[in-house]
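Question: Send over one sample?
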Amino acid sequence: CEAVELLKSREELSINKAINTQEVAVKEKHARNILLLSMCKGAHTFWAAVNRLPLSSNAVLCWKFCHVFHKLLRDGHPNVIKDSMRNKADLTDMSRMWGHLSEGYGKLCSIYLKLLITKMEFHIKNPRFPGNLQMSNRQLDEAGENDVNNFFQLTVEMFDYLECELNLFLGVFSSLDMSRSVSVTAAGQCRLAPLIQVILDCSHLYDYTVKLLFKLHSCLPADTLQGHRDRFQEQFKKLKSLFYRSSNLQYFKRLIQIPQLPENPPNFLRASALSEHISPVVVIPAESSSPESEHVVETDDLFDDLFGTSAAIDPFNFNSQNGILKTLSAQHLQNLFSISLLLLCPPFCLFSIRLQSGRLCQALRGRVSELEAELAEQSHLRLQAVGESEFLKAELDDLRRVREDTEKEQRSLTEIERKAQANEQRYTKLKEKYTELVQSHADLLRKVLGTQLSALESEKAELVQTLSKVEAELAVRGEELERVQSSLATERESGVKTAEALQNQLNEKVKNRLIELELLLPLQKLRPRGLELQQGELGDLVEQEMAATSAAVESAAARIEEMLNKSRAVDTGIKMEVNERILASCTELMQAIKELILSSKDLQRDIVESGRGAATMKEFYAKNSRWTEGLISASKAVGWGATVMVDAADLVVQGKGKFEELMVCSHEIAASTAQLVAASKVKADKDSSNLQRLQQASRGVTQATAAVVASTKSGKSQIEETGESIRKMSPQCVLVLELETRLQKERERLGELRKKHYELAGVAEGWGEEEEGEHEEAQSHCNQYI
């Protein structure tokens, strides 16, 4: 019992020496003594001594406690973790308290305490993992009990564990001034020293995480593990950077060899990539001093810590026994000390063996790593030498070829000089002959020019006569043009008078209608007798006209098809090509008109079915008589336009008609269809699907009309270029185009008249502002076609 008490007192002494307020790194010998002495009773003595330290009032003291406690958790007795769990609440409170500081050791202590708590919880939950995390692949498989769910959860816990390690790593580096050589100062070493334990933990956690992820990818779908892969990628980048930065610090170079992670993370989606994974090995190199001297120093220090330095009060002061031990060798003194410790603490024997075997294994692993690195370097040098040898062989072959080529060139140089002299002689002869040829050519040119000058004089006289004839013809054409312009002016005046007369009639009707309205008399009283019969006839007339229009379009399409077949049987060459193109475009226009008529019928049905105050279709048509008249007029115009266009196309195909007339008919059809669209659209609902269909069909007619005009113009150009008889009709074509311009202006006047007509119809029918706005939009659409 006295020996045990003595060990406890000496352990407390080592604890007080290791954990103090000086900002220097914990001495390795003091930490090692604490590990050796904790083998007797676990961590009870350690915590008894630590609880008397003011850890909550001094951040440096708490930082060094964390360092010693981390080493004790890693390399101490297995019971240390269990004995320390009862202090978890105190450690948590201390971490929260130090976390209120934003910088310095306070913040680092908070992060370090969280790491130690996480480490204890991990090992309590996974007791198969030792404190130093050293496990074989078989032991790693046994830890998951061959259950994919256990491996999944174990990987998550390792991620959390490694995250705490990386946080401490980053916290220490961010607290240092990396622009200075902090690793050679006592304050810098005080902060960097615990990172050795962190590096040892991180190397194992990274290795096990890679192996577990490959195992999980062999059992689970890749999508399920997307979160695991993302988290691993993030931790891989941090750990690679931290290992690289640590390996460049002078402090670590003499204490530990830090491995470097690969350039790219493993590809877990490829199972064969597991064979490319190399477990990172942290090597702690042997110290420069000899093992015997190291043990002597450590033994002396531990001897002093255990038995004190005062011979008068210490019963184990062997130096006072007549100087017997003074002559003992270092090896004998070590053996005697080991026997003493074995008598005092039997568990020390096992720990000593484990510690020595661990150091030996670590040294051997370091040597193996060095030999592997040397082998890899030699292999690289060998490959480099082989490459250089191949390169030198290739250069030698190139030099040989160059030398052979040079010899060949030297041999042929004499031959080249001889050929050059011969060529120079030939050049002199050719030059003389060329001079003779130039002289004879000049004489010949003089003779030829004299002949050509006389010919040019005669041609000049002929051109003067032709120019006089052309000027006379132009004068005659000018007189004809003046007569035509005078005729057009007369006709234009007569159109204007007609329009004024129509305008006066419309104004008179409007006045009469306004007078009727001012009298606010019911319309029913103004209706003449027999109006019911007229309403029925008007409703039937709409259906008849729409049916007649459809029939006219169908007939026109059939005639175009007949003309197309006849042209293919009779015509050849350019004429057949032009006729086919024109008739094909006319066919497409007829199809577009069919679609427009069908859309108009559907839209009229929607208008009638929507109500608008009428019970039946005939009553609706009768009530809106002006709108109905406009619809009938537009339908008639479409049918008439289709028939006239087919007649014009027939004459063009036969060679008896004019291309311009066909283009005029196309424009007229566009205007008629625009009138039909405008008449149908006035009372339609803006959101009606049939209205959208009608507008789409109207755009189709416009495009088809443009295609007819384009094919007609193209055909006309082709026919004119071939020199056929159409050229003789050029004066008439000019007149037709002039008339077409005049017709265009008259169309514009007609559009204005129609606009007035619909405005008057709106007033007469009692349309509201919404219908008037729709009418204006429809009329604008109509004018665009015109």
User: Anything to note?
Assistant: Residues 139-285 form one domain. The two ends are 122 Å apart (CA to CA). The mean pLDDT is 76. The chain has four domains: 1-125, 139-285, 291-345, 531-715+729-785.
